[in-house]
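Worked Example 4.2. Consider the chain below.
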Amino acid sequence: MGLLDLSSNYPTGKIPNELNNLDLSKLLISNNHLSGNIPIEISSIDELETLDLATNNLSSFIRKQLANFPKIWNLNLSHNKFTGNIPIEFRQFKILQSLDLSGIFLDGTIPTTLTRLRYLETLNISHNNLSGFIPSSFDQMFSLTSVDTSYNQLEGPLPNVRAFNNATINMLGNNNALCGNVSALKPCPTSRSKSHDR
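Applying the procedure from the previous section yields the following structure tokens:
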């Protein structure tokens, strides 16, 4: 198994389909000028553990086939021009520990299926257009130690789990109406205050 690092070499064009012929554990192509979508063919690199495509001009929807990597533990697609939702197929990752989807124009809600990623330690979904509530089932993500949901349209209470309890306002701010026991966030309304408001 090998490493292919083409980061900061500024190639243009599309990611070549032929990469699937390489026996790789790490594929690093960040900080370039690549465009188009991620070729489905690279999802057949069975031994891939790290895929870093951050800071390119990749576009269209995030391929659901990316969830087919059986050994990947680090996936970084940040700072591209993807659109659409977080694929629900991402629940299929077996040992994913780090997922960075920040700054890629995602919308929709956070899928509850993400909470099936039992080994996930770091999640960054900041600087998107995600809306709705953070799924309460995040309470069961005991491996999660760092989470950044800032600059979205999220609302409602924070899950009661270490990653959110220890998060700073920089990692939670600039949302619609998140609430919780975190510095600079408003406390969530109680049933009594809701009744009084009515």
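Helices lie at 162-165, 191-197. DSSP finds two helices and 15 strands in the chain. Compare this with Example 4.1 before moving on.
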